[in-house]
Model the fold of this input.
Amino acid sequence: MNSLLFLVPIALGLAAVFLILFLRAARDGQFDDLDDPPLRILMDDDDGPA
Amino acid sequence: MEGESDAFCCAGCEAAYAIIRGAGLERYYREREAFAPRPEPMPGGWDAVPLAAGADGTCSVRLSIDGLRCASCVWVTEGVLRRMRGVAEATVSYATGRATLRWDPATVRLSELADRIASLGYRPRVLGEEGRPDRDLLLRLGVAAFAAVNVMMFSAALYAGWTAGMEARFAALFRWMSLALATPVVAWSAAPFFAGAWSGLRNRALHMDVPIALAIVILYAQGWWATLRGGDTYLDSLTMLVALLLAGRLMETRGRRRAAEAAVTLAATLPPTARRLVDARVETVSSERLRPGDRIVVSAGDEVPADGVAVEGRASVRMALLTGESAPVEVSAGGRVWAATVVVDGSLTVDVTEAADDTVVRRMAEELRSAADRGSRPSSTDRIAPWFTSATLAIACGTFVAWTRLGDPGAALSATIAVLVVACPCALALSRPLAAAAGLGAVARRGLLFRSADALLELAVVDQVVLDKTGTVTAGAFEVVSARDADLRVAAGLERHSRHPVAAAVVREAAAREIPLPSASEVVEVAGVGISGLVDGVCWSLRSGGPDALLLEGPDGYAGLLRLGDNLRHDSGEAVRRLRELGVEVTLLTGDRERVANRIARATGIDDVRAAAGPEEKAAMIRALRARGRRVLFAGDGLNDGPALAAADVAVAMGTGSATSILVADGVLAGGSLLPLVTGIQASKACRSAIRRNQARSVGYNIVAVGAAALGWVNPLVAAVLMPLSSAMVVWGSSRVEAEVRRREGGA
Done:
């Protein structure tokens, strides 16, 4: 059972990494606009998005 | 080419049209003249715009771009901007009409970028600072959801420990871990509820946030108390509850942010410059500087910069912006013109009567803006909240007193806490946003896009539908209603040389009847009079024979008559009939003449017709209907319908209508048919009953749960099962909205 004492923090730490990734993505605005990206697929552009 | 309508969805398509139809270039340039070239932004003003400086020496700014009507507009704008030297990034959002630009200030200036956008035919404008509340909510939700799932893991272990046994040090570890995870949820994620509760209390209103904030505080305080004493906590319920509530709130604000952005986009539509006559000399001044009494000149292609009276000249002016009627109106000396209308042909000298903010179009825009700010109406949930809160507090007090009287102070405290915990109105707070979101989705799939749930729910009680004629009941273009083939052939031969919308209708009809167009020579068009020329070597003239007829005259005088009319949408009649079946009265309201209005009313089966109503009269009539206790839905398509849209209980714009009407309306009919209105009303009723069911269920749950808690039967495990269960009930109730809408559609 003692293994819990370090497994629990490891699990929490791992979850925290994903939380931080999500928060960064949200803060960068990746979830701001959920309507345009699907339209953008339809635009054949040689440049691609900047 | 000649048969095409002369209105493009956007400047991008217009440009593409010119490229593809290389042979039609000449025609394209003639068309261009008829479109008001969009005014250039004020030079000088652009370089004073505050910019955000990036670390790599680049500047960035967010602009609003007017006139984006389709995805190709986005493609054109982005492509052109990216090819400019010094531009590092150019992203245009179609959904919001926003552009993000990043560029090197040493290579290119913002004014050059703005000019480039303007030269494409779109109108760039600088935006003020815009808040991003829903990014903030999303972050809070992320933290709350993270905490909720992890606390639940610990809690599951603790509950398992009740039967299987658990070492005290692990139990303590798990409780402290839970507490550590719950702390940021309470301190940060739940902050909007505390802020809402506080502002509610300050305004002496017990709305939904008050009991929620109360429950959060009590749960958290109990968490500390129990953790220090080694007892059981409700922290799993607490975190889950905050996450669920934030998710519900996020769904609501996403829709509301759209509406707010649309309000910001409402621009004053005056052209920036005017040509003023001073001592027989023409000078260019800002439209804002015009004063009543100034004399200005406008010619073909101009937007009129101020309201005024024509003193000289003759022109056809497209007043669709104000009247909604697509046919240009002939204006000569003594006639009135209004700001933001477009001169199609000829030229005028105008004495300014109202300028800048006093112009009709500006006052209209102001009315639209205040309409967009009208905010959300108090919901039925907010009405339940006060008595809900007071009842909960009363029961909690009663529980405490009763248990103390029974001589068990320890049980008194735990039972009271349990009452306050299970009374948390999580399910009640979710009952409306979830059902409304389901309803919005259901009507959107049927071609009616609503901006806010409030407006959708309002649809259920609508008992009066007022329809604009042009562009709403009709498709908004002219068509030839009756004409003999021989007359049509000659008329089309002449009209192919004209860019008047009526001419396009004549040519289109000839093409539809597969009549080969004769060639015409020596064609002379006189604005406001007619067109004449040689066809088959004979001199013909075609002139206006009243508002909806064209007279064809040959060498021997009168030769024939072409009758014109609006073309009716094919399913308008059915839509009217089905609205009637729902017990809704239908009125036709138009700025057009009585005779035309009556023809359309007969064709669709509408009895009640109000014709020749201007924008203000339309709004006044809707206000009068509302004063008589009617709940009014107005559907229209022009900026001239703006005041009426703002005055109605529910405003619906046509997807094919002017951008401004779409922005100001609560909803948009995407498919160019009125039938989705019928479904919308049915869906709204389904939605309302789902909300009522949800509220009944969640209140029922609360009564049972609070009763059990007052008797001391509730412990943290029971609460952790009961509370999500009540929310699940609400989710299930909401998910049935779509099925209910289908059932009602089938039944109708």
Summary: Chain B has a mean pLDDT of 78.
